[in-house]
Amino acid sequence: MTTFQRIVLAQRPRGEVLASNFRLETVEVPALADGQVLVRNHFLSLDPYMRGRMSDAKSYAAPQPLDETMIGGTVGQVVESKNPKFAVGEHVAGMFGWAEMGVSDGALLRKLDVSRIPLSAYLGPVGMTGMTAWYGLNQIMQPKAGETVAVSAASGAVGSVVGQLAKLRGCRVVGIAGGKEKCDYVVNELGFDACVDYKAGNLQADLAAAAPNGIDAIFENVGGEVFDAALARTNAFARVALCGMIAGYNGADVEIKNARVLLTNRLTLRGFIVTEHMEFWPQGLTELGMLVATGKLKYRETVAPDLAAAPEAFIGLLKGKNFGKQLVKLI
Amino acid sequence: MTTFQRIVLAQRPRGEVLASNFRLETVEVPALADGQVLVRNHFLSLDPYMRGRMSDAKSYAAPQPLDETMIGGTVGQVVESKNPKFAVGEHVAGMFGWAEMGVSDGALLRKLDVSRIPLSAYLGPVGMTGMTAWYGLNQIMQPKAGETVAVSAASGAVGSVVGQLAKLRGCRVVGIAGGKEKCDYVVNELGFDACVDYKAGNLQADLAAAAPNGIDAIFENVGGEVFDAALARTNAFARVALCGMIAGYNGADVEIKNARVLLTNRLTLRGFIVTEHMEFWPQGLTELGMLVATGKLKYRETVAPDLAAAPEAFIGLLKGKNFGKQLVKLI
């Protein structure tokens, strides 16, 4: 290969993301300098945070620059190395973005053991996705055995891990997801105690039935009416890990209508970005890796077939069309 | 005295509190049983939390029963005692409610030293009011020297203490209050660095000017657009002590329109009720008492002249008509 494909941000979305916001390009494979490695990416991770980067509104991270490779986590294999720490053939995770190849000095590459854990899992339950769940559950929600935990986007890559970790802690776990198929998966395959289909039209009543003792901790991925419904069922001193507000990713305001509950139930709410808490990653990834390797942590993937399919897959992710972790196959 | 006056809740308010929700009654002074004391109340504290109790909506506390004495903190003097721990003439704080007298077994009475601290201050900066400020600041906001602290209802009984305590910690303190007179008081007498008049119509811009380095911690008493404006100016990892939402005390919904900021700025928000944290009161009241006794903590009182004036004073409190701590003189 002397060239590879990448996708750049062509224009910032106004409201909904469109395929035309992206541009597929073919670029030359660069020559390596001393200390560098060339990685052939096998999978790209698509994540809701990317929507925020596409905007130039003030946020926790600098916006994705126009005409540059879209940001993204990847896993792949070293195909050329001028760095003594990396041998050709080794598997690595990196942040090479929406691209088939990438060059690195190795500083931010993580070597991966694929003997017991599939390569793609390092973008899901044993990567940032899993760590997001782990951090929110263990550092913010801290549920005790017997407490009730609610998880929105429960069939999603993060939510599915949150709920399974909470079950391992002995909690009653209630998922919220869109549609019967996702809810069935959450209960029957992931082992949640209940799942409420927010599309069924009885969110508040169904949540009350699913959480008869109220809710002690919330992992929030969605915002909007889903979050308000969960807030309305909280017990005193409930904790909220605020991970995402996908209801607002297309630029819509996200309101908390039920703000009074924050006071009357004396809630603690914390917004977080897991990449700001790297000190927990070694412990968390070790635990998550063990759980995946031993089959105790289940996950599902939706895999787009090639890089050209990434924009549509990403747009689908923002609309909840994926099932589990959304990946793009690059090889 | 063989009779005394009290005010009971006659009916629950629908929306705004009306004077007709209350009823003034004359009742007999009861005979004391062994172990009891009779207290003549000198001052009654009026506080926003009472509005919540008047409603029978689910809340952290049981609703105020109809036809019973309105709940409330009082300070007064023992006038008769069948309890060896209390002598006639001793000053005590209690929860005797909207009433000129009260009977207690002494268990929940706190003896007061009025040699260096005025009796009424034990309902304000050296009572629950001061502890509310102390707890929110020290246990939730935890601002460091040089950080910027925002306080809504800044001229109020709680807000004024929060700001002064934050100044003693070396913070830049920005108040938010309604009207020029209150703002002048906050800056010129209480020593805040700045005060934004939310009635002036430029809340967002004025707050940006008053907090040029952003806001690191918020003490929130109001909710609604005042809170949204402060949220919009937060820095990453800002802390919010959510003490009150007086914007919603008349039954209106209180929304957080700016909920996205909770995530993008990774805020920590905690709603609290200071009476659930009694373990901090001995330390806090000692510190607050020292500050009042040495003139380092200033406070202002608005005093209604007698019990019959309490309903109108309370209605005024909910509308921000008082200035500083709202008391009712009972003797």
UniProtKB/TrEMBL annotation, chains A, B:
Protein name: Enoyl reductase (ER) domain-containing protein
InterPro entries listed in its UniProt record: ADH-like_C (IPR013149), ADH_N_2 (IPR041694), ER (IPR020843), GroES-like_sf (IPR011032), MDR_fam (IPR045010), NAD(P)-bd_dom_sf (IPR036291)
A Pfam cross-reference name: ADH_zinc_N
Gene3D superfamilies in UniProt: Medium-chain alcohol dehydrogenases, catalytic domain, NAD(P)-binding Rossmann-like Domain
Keyword Repressor in record: no
Enoyl reductase (ER) domain span: 19-328
Database matches in CDD domains: PGDH (cd05288)
Entry keywords, A to Z: Oxidoreductase
GO molecular function terms noted in the UniProt entry: oxidoreductase activity, acting on the CH-CH group of donors, NAD or NADP as acceptor
